[in-house]
Design a protein that fits this description.
alpha+beta, Aminopeptidase, 7 helices, single chain, seven-stranded mixed β-sheet
Length: 223
């Protein structure tokens, strides 16, 4: 008996594949790319991300202070391996709030409208659950409607206090599905990154070869 996907199943699988975003964990070796991404944000985006108009010097101090051992920092790279979106999942250092974490995100202006902020939030929620976090916090300016919309959509309680707002999202306990999904997504993102890296290295090699060939042609022409 021949078994195949129905049209509905096929369309659903296609939409799921199209919506997948390669989000990978970042480490200290990505500091330069992180700083370049944050410094590349517009003045308004820096203001919304940090709560103040952060200067390049302040961003540099923030990047140098990132604790990659304690916290989770995630990123999305384009095909040129430029960091176009990143999220910081900061775990509490106070034992009293050991099951709490805070989420922050930034997306390059030319990557807006692709749902990267929402995808990074979902990814952070899954990782937070798997680390035993029961409450996720988001502190944002009240005018940061995009971030607050993501929080509300996830079911978070949002409390506004003048120009600032706090969102609280209670997380369910980790299960086998969340743990497996976290491992699978990380592996897929690693493969995606390696393919982009190989493509970039090939383009660089090809450019070098073409430059050498051009030099040989010019030398022959002179002779």
């Amino acid at each position: 008996m021949k078994v195949g996907l129905t049209d509905r199943q096929a369309n659903g699988a296609a939409r799921k594949t199209e919506s997948w975003v390669p989000i990978r964990s970042l480490s200290s070796r990505h500091k330069q790319r992180i700083e370049r991404h944050l410094c590349g944000l517009t003045a308004q985006d820096r203001y919304l991300r940090f709560g103040y108009a952060a200067t390049a010097e302040q961003i540099g101090r923030y990047v140098q202070g990132l604790d990659f051992e304690r916290d989770e920092i995630f990123g999305v790279f384009n095909r040129r391996l430029e960091l176009v979106a990143m999220a910081h999942l900061a775990y509490s250092i106070d034992p009293q709030w050991a099951t709490c974490a805070e989420f922050g995100v930034s997306v390059a202006s030319h990557q807006r409208g692709k749902g990267l902020g929402g995808k990074l939030f979902e990814h952070a929620v899954m990782h937070a659950r798997n680390q035993g976090v029961s409450m996720l916090f988001i502190h944002a300016l009240s005018e940061n409607s995009a971030m607050l919309k993501i929080a509300r959509h996830a079911g978070a309680t949002v409390e506004r206090d003048g120009s600032e707002s706090d969102a609280y999202l209670a997380l369910p306990q980790a299960d086998l599905d969340s743990q497996f999904s976290g491992l699978l997504q990380e592996q897929m993102a690693q493969v995606d990154y390696q393919l982009k890296l190989q493509a970039q290295q090939f383009r660089q090699w090809l450019a070098t070869v073409q430059e050498i060939r051009q030099g040989v042609r010019e030398a022959r022409h002179k002779v």
